[in-house]
Amino acid sequence: MPRIDITATREAARALGVGGDALDGASDDVAVAGLAGPLAGSLTAATLADLQAVGRQRLVDAGRELATLEEGMVTLADHTAEATGER
């Protein structure tokens, strides 16, 4: 049976959760079209708006993936603690 450092696993899971939260908050800051003032109203601006939406979605997805990884690591630590009698 592999050895699991329960405390380190939980700490790493918390850090992943913080990272996921930061990505979720960063998705609100993606404003590619707003950064391109000279392009406002142009055909290029519409393309940038599409890219902005994709950028936001990718950040949200990455945040969800980190949250899933965090949950799995917490479960691993909890099950290891239960199996070994540690807490």
Give a brief rundown of this model.
This protein has helices spanning 6-26, 32-35, 43-84.
Order of helices and strands: HHH
Q: What's the main sheet like? A: none
Termini distance? 18 Å
Count of β-strands: 0
What's the mean pLDDT score?
A: 82
Helix content: over 70%
- The general outline is rod-shaped
Rounded to the nearest angstrom, the radius of gyration is 20 Å
Number of helices: 3
Q: Estimate the strand proportion.
A: under 5%
Poorly predicted parts = none
Structure description:
- The protein is an all-alpha fold and 87 residues long.
- 77% of the residues lie in helices and 0% in strands.
- It is built from three helices and no strands.
- α1 runs antiparallel to α3 (43-84).
- The chain starts with 5 loop residues before the first helix and ends with a helix.
- The mean pLDDT is 82.
Question: Features of this protein?
Answer:
rod-shaped, mainly alpha, 87 residues, 3 helices, single chain
Protein topology:
Layout: H1 6-26, H2 32-35, H3 43-84
